[in-house]
């Protein structure tokens, strides 16, 4: 449980780097029953898969500044709990990877105001004089943090956090 709080803190810290958000984070944690994570284990960053030629990530989140901030937050939290960063993934017990995604969305707000006028089909008071419909655009951000057991290549732990 102590490890889950550690990794949760790292995931949350990394997500806070992304942006200031309106809603509280929803964090879901999954832990494998088959792969264990022991405090003090060594870890390395999993090799980053290269994008296909001609494809680039979203520049709002796929840039060196964001990548460095997320890695620093995760390294700081894991290091504070005794995990040891190693440079060679072939010697690490755990491989760490994260994925960030953003998706735009729209909510609609309808406000009615003004005195009503009697009209057919609207009931006794009728339809309102004024109806204001507003589109509220937002961006949902998602951060997924994975810890894989290098020896078995099994996913040992995953945290998923979403914020608006």
Characterise this structure.
There is one protein chain. The chain has 164 residues and is of the alpha/beta class. The protein contains two helices and six strands, in the order H-E-E-H-E-E-E-E. The chain has a six-stranded mixed beta sheet, with helices on one face. Strand 5 and strand 6 (154-163) form a beta hairpin. Helix 1 packs antiparallel against helix 2 (64-80).
Write the layout of secondary structure elements.
Elements: H1 2-18, E1 26-31, E2 42-45, H2 64-80, E3 84-85, E4 94-113, E5 130-149, E6 154-163
Helix pairs in contact: 1-2
| Strand coverage percent | 35-45%
**Which consecutive residue ranges, at least 5 long each, have pLDDT under 50?**
15-21
Principal-axes shape call = elongated
The biggest beta sheet is recorded as: 6 strands, mixed
Mean pLDDT: 80
The SSE string, one letter per element, is: HEEHEEEE
Task: Provide the gyration radius in Å.
Answer: 23 Å
Q: Given the helix and strand composition, which structural class is it?
A: alpha/beta
The helix count comes to 2
- Taking strands numbered 1, 2, ... along the chain, how are they ordered across the largest sheet? 1-6-5-4-2-3
Please give the number of β-strands: 6
- Helix percent band: 10-25%
